[in-house]
Structures are given as structure tokens and as C-alpha cells.
Amino acid sequence: MGGADDKAGAVNRTMPAMVLKAAKLVKHGKVATLGKVYQQDAPAFGSRGWRMTIPGLPTGGPFGTQELIYNDEFLSTEIGQIGTQFDGPAHIGVITSKGDYFYNGRYLQDEDVTTYGTGPLGVEHVAKIGFVCRGVLLDAVALRGGQLPIPKAKQDPGIITVADIEAMIKNQGIDPIGEGDCVFLYTGHGDIWHPTEWDTFDAAEKQKRIAAFNAGTPGFGISACEYLASRKIILWGGDTWPTEAVPGEGDQPFECHIKMMTRSGIWNLENMDFSQLVADKAYEFLFAWSPLKIKGGTGSPGNPIAMY
After folding, report:
1. Structural domain contains residue 47
2. Residue 41, class by beta-carbon neighbours within 10 Å (0-12 exposed, 13-18 middle, 19+ buried)?
3. Structure confidence by residue, pLDDT tens digits, 55-83
């Protein structure tokens, strides 16, 4: 997108005319936040976790005659890869004969990539631009008539294909996917980690749901991802932890991650909450969000916003 020196990827496609056109999608003055709550007992991939403490209670003070006190939190987590998360340039690579290859011909073996920060692959380079775009929500639950299953075969209703995308666009009465769009998929699988009811579940129910949530996911198949890349979108995302189907259409695990991110610079926003948009059938909206400017980070937490 930006030549040999590019560090941001597909978001470089954003042009002022695209932003102005997307702004016209705000017709009702409604706002939906699409992030889930960050908390210790939320589902997480593998050994990842969120561990927050507030030391002291209060952490500091008192100061002055009014005896001001304050609290700080201490956080231990994979800050770019937990909860509602943005996958940046340093997150996904492939091993090649020349080394561990990442977006735009950079390698983990490069001198400017270290354990203290990934240099030109850092998420801050994407954050300098941010995402303001036409958001498109593809409602696969409406298409299938219920929550999508975890795929059990390469031809499975849990895998979203190009034909499925085209059917959802038609059924939802929205314009085709185009250059500069941010495209999101609602599978219903994310509702296992219920955005509003999670804290009402007891520990046993939470553990049951975490196991089900992490067992695999419905989502985009590689053919759908190749289609989205060909449409020159700038961001993809979903209500699950990988956005793509796991297992998918091919034998390579996370093949959409490789195609979309490592090969195409189209970053991924996972574990999103679409409940308000689905309830309102708000399938097109002005989408705005930026990752945090974490120097050398692999990704970012955040709370994306849809306006419609």
C-alpha cells in the first residue's frame, strides 16, 4: 500500500472522500460501543490472562488539607492480545527459508526488532492513522437462522463463504463491500461470552462457557477472506477470538490470518460485541477506532464505536 517503507498496511487506503461518505451513514444519532469488558474471568486464548490489582486502596496520599487520595491499577496481561483485541503487524508471521517473515518483508531476525519492541512492525504505526470508515456488519445468524456451529468439516455451515457474504449483503439490503470498508461478522458464537449477562453466571457456568468458547469457532473461510482482500477493505473483525473459522476450509490453521494480515496488511479486530447493532439491524454505520500507540506492540485493546 505504501511501498517498501510502509508500516501501517491497508489503512493507508483511507481517503478524505471515503470518510465524508461514511459520515453520511449517521442518520439517527445513535452510538453503539463494540468492546467487551476486560476482566480476569473472561475467556482468553491459550494461557493468556488479565490480572489487575489496585495496590493500597488508596494507592497514594493523603495530600493537603482536604487529604486528597488516589488509586492506580497495576496490570499484568498480553495487552495487545486479550479480550476485544486488535491484531497488528507484529502479531502473525510465517517461517521461511530467510527467517520469520512478517508484513511487508520484515523479519523477527532484523536488528530493529527486539524483545523490547518490534520496531517497524509496532502497532503505533497503524495507530498514527486510525480507522474511520464505512462499517459493514454481516449477520450470519440471520442468514443461518441461529448461532453458527463450530465447523466439523471443510464444507460446514459454520464456515462463511463468498456466496454467504453476497447473500447477506442482498438480504440486508446494503451496498456491496468496497474499497476502504471495515467488515465485521456476527456468528452468535461470541454470545457464549455474553456481553451483558456474564457476571450473573456462577464460576462453574463460566468455566463451561469458556471451554465452549475456546473449543473452536465459526467464521470466515479462506475463500471469503481472499474475496474481502480483493475488495480492498481496510479492517476485518468479528464476535469470536479469531474472526475466521477454526477449523477452516484448508489444512493450514489460521489461514485467513496469514492471507489478510501477513500478506495483505488488513488487520483484525476480535471479540467484538454486536448486540446493539443486531437488535437495531444497523448493518451500515460510521465506524471509528484506533489502536493505542504502544511502541513496538503486537496489538491493542480498545472499545470501537459505531455511529448510525
Report:
1. no
2. middle
3. 999 999 999 999 999 999 999 999 999 99
